[in-house]
TrEMBL record:
Gene3D superfamilies: Dipeptide-binding Protein, Domain 3, Periplasmic binding protein-like II. The chain crosses the membrane at residues 51-73. The keyword Signal applies. The lineage of its organism: Bacteria, Pseudomonadati, Pseudomonadota, Betaproteobacteria, Burkholderiales. SUPFAM superfamilies: Periplasmic binding protein-like II. This is Extracellular solute-binding protein. Pfam families: SBP_bac_5.
């Protein structure tokens, strides 16, 4: 229940990615093709927001910090040297001889069921899936290392010795889809537009530390930073670039950026929009004049002549359409579907094939998000009690066929996950705030409740009851009530596209809550209404997937920073507002060494886990993919990747 298509999925069903839609789209768009992990990770629950991908992408591969030395190069690395030297031919995880041709047909890459715009960078509306195929960035990361970026639109990168700027030289061959050369003015225009009020508010936050872009000459642009931050050169390089002519009318007037709808984007990516139908289907065709096909970072990629997205009304219709042969690939995120429903005659005959592919992505965080803006959830004892009411072991046995592992960190499955007692470096960050922190923060990390013997659900619920009583909630008159006699009740919000997969899980959770006297109701909303409520933080509890990152960075401020908590549509759906968290976030993004970054990430993880803001869900270390016979993929798999982005960028038709 957790993933969608844009995020690097690791749980059981498609969920909304915490990275806001537009930003996801943007960044996703920019790096999706070469950063499948990101793209996929971004599409997560709200693909309409390729944004997740964007950030995800920016994150996944970009959150990396750059080397301090200033020199012009084809690539830069956080530590040591990039894996691939100057003059490399292609990434190791592609097939440079993959045949080109054919059409790849896909279904909704997320819970998106319709679209009403081609602009993935604005807040309002739902962007079409696949727009990441049209946008590129100055540089991209590789999917088999976590701390390097390589030139794409740029053929040369130079970080200033003081770390306060980075300069990119644009490849003279780089062209937009209308044939115009990509210039430094276009790059500056892209940054200025994304930071403006006309773009989704997250962009101003993500790129806020970039003071300005300076046009040095038509082919050279310099990004200047407000202060030294090793992640900023990476973020600058990962920013999606689009033409100044996008939205320009024949008479010279311009359509405001936030009013762009079905005006086709002018990007530099390998695909163009060929056709679309009623906001339900869209076809991309490979640009025959694509400028970058022979670049080392593009060799072996973009092998399909056409990529088609068909959007279905719900998960059941989507699955039946796959079995009927209406599209080619199904990435399955629901364990019981994989075992019980992804079967039939076409699977038996070999026309449809099921494969499990290993991946090494971090898990990100997915779970029941408790909106801390609500008075009901502002007491940490209450939040901890709700965590105790989830019986993961029972769910894993009865519903998930024992295919999942419980998430126990915001950075699980990575080196950034806090463990044991705080290190000396963590204590240096936390000690100044000791009088504002629960003493437990300085002790061991919380362990997720366990109901396997000798543990039991009953023991967990008794502990939860005690915590609730300490917080002023007691059982009387048939319900758990506070001192004013108000009953403890809340709503769990979901959208119609994923309600079917979530319903048995939520039913089990709410039954356990009833034993405590808590009433939780399950509310299903139309996708558009659901998204609007999430953007306005108008919910009690919902399920969200925070896309994983291989190296934490600026995106964490958008997820947990106090300012983001008050910004509609931001990634801080939880509503975390803590000066301690803000201080640790500041240390994280300004870390100058790997050790400093590790200490800050561990301290952040420790604070968040002790805050019990989320009732964590679960993850899997594999991608489950069912596909039509005749599709093929490279023998060497990436290390960090999302299934959907990997498929669109690196698979091919065998019979070509």
């Amino acid at each position: 229940m957790i993933t969608g298509s844009q995020r690097v999925q690791t749980t059981a069903a498609p969920r909304r990615s915490v990275i806001h839609r537009p930003l996801r789209a943007a960044l996703t768009a920019a790096l999706a093709t070469v950063f499948p992990a990101v793209a996929s990770a971004a599409r997560s629950a709200t693909v309409s927001a390729a944004i997740s991908a964007a950030i995800s992408a920016v994150l996944l591969c970009a959150t990396l910090l750059l080397a301090p030395a200033a020199h012009a190069a084809h690539a830069i690395a956080q530590y040591g040297e990039p894996k691939y030297p100057a003059g490399f031919k292609h990434f190791d995880y592609v097939n440079p001889d993959a045949p080109k041709g054919g059409t790849l047909v896909l279904a909704n890459p997320s819970r998106l069921t319709s679209f009403d715009k081609f602009n993935p960078f604005t807040l309002r509306g739902n962007a079409a899936p696949g727009l990441e195929l049209m946008f590129e960035s100055l540089a991209v990361g590789s999917a088999d290392e976590v701390a390097s970026i390589y030139g794409l639109l740029a053929d040369d990168i130079a970080v200033a010795p003081d770390g306060l700027s980075v300069t990119f030289r644009i490849n003279p061959r780089a062209r937009f889809s209308n044939g115009d050369p990509v210039t430094a003015d276009d790059v500056k225009f892209s940054l200025d537009t994304l930071k403006s009020p006309q773009a989704a508010p997250q962009y101003a936050s993500i790129f806020g530390e970039i003071k300005r872009a300076v046009v040095v000459d038509p082919r050279t642009v310099r990004f200047e930073f407000r202060e030294r931050n090793r992640e900023l050169p990476l973020l600058a390089g990962s920013m999606p670039v689009f033409s100044r002519k996008w939205g320009l009318k024949a008479d010279g007037s311009r359509i405001p950026f936030d009013q762009l709808a079905f005006e086709k984007p002018i990007g530099s990516g390998p695909y163009l929009i060929e056709s679309y139908d009623n906001g339900r289907n869209i076809t991309f065709k490979r640009n025959p004049d694509y400028w970058g096909a022979d670049l080392p970072v593009r060799v072996g990629m973009n092998n399909f002549d056409r990529i088609v997205y068909k959007l279905y009304a719900d998960a059941t219709a989507r699955l039946e359409a796959f079995k009927a042969g209406e599209y080619d690939v199904l990435v399955e995120y629901i364990a019981r579907n994989w075992v019980r429903r992804d079967v039939g005659k076409k699977f038996d005959s070999g026309e449809l094939i099921k494969r499990v592919f290993p991946q090494h992505n971090g898990t990100g965080m997915q779970g029941f998000i408790l909106n801390a803006r609500r008075p009901l959830f502002q007491d940490v004892r209450v939040r901890k009690a709700l965590d105790l009411a989830l019986d993961f072991q029972w769910l894993n046995r009865q519903l998930f066929y024992s295919q999942y592992t419980r998430i126990d960190s915001y950075f699980a499955n990575t080196e950034w996950q806090a463990k044991g007692l705080p290190s000396a470096g963590e204590l240096a960050l936390l000690e100044p705030w000791r009088d504002q922190l629960d003493p437990a923060v300085f002790g061991p990390l919380p362990k997720q409740p366990d109901t396997d013997p000798p543990g039991s659900l009953r023991a967990n619920l008794l502990q939860a009851r005690d915590l609730l009583q300490q917080a002023g909630w007691t059982y009387r008159d048939g319900a758990l009530r506070n001192a004013r006699g108000e009953p403890f009740r809340f709503e769990i919000l979901d959208d119609s596209g994923s309600a079917a997969s979530m319903e048995p899980i939520i039913a089990t959770f709410t039954r356990n809550l009833q034993k405590l006297g808590i009433t939780a109701t399950f509310r299903v909303a139309d996708y558009a209404v659901y998204q609007k409520r999430l953007d306005a933080f108008d919910f009690d509890v919902t399920t969200i997937r925070m896309p994983d990152v291989q190296v934490p960075g600026q995106e964490q401020i958008n997820r947990f920073g106090s300012k983001a908590a008050d910004t509609p549509g931001s990634d801080n759906a939880i509503g975390v507002k803590s000066p301690v968290v803000d201080a640790v976030l500041d240390a994280l993004v300004h870390a100058q060494t790997r050790e400093q970054l590790t200490d800050a990430a561990h301290a952040l993880d420790r604070l968040l886990m002790h805050g019990y803001y989320v009732v964590p869900h679960w993850y899997s270390g594999t991608h489950r993919v069912a596909f039509r016979r005749g599709l093929a993929w490279p023998k060497t798999l990436p290390l960090y990747y999302g299934a959907e982005g990997w498929i669109t960028s690196m698979w091919w038709h065998e019979d070509r």
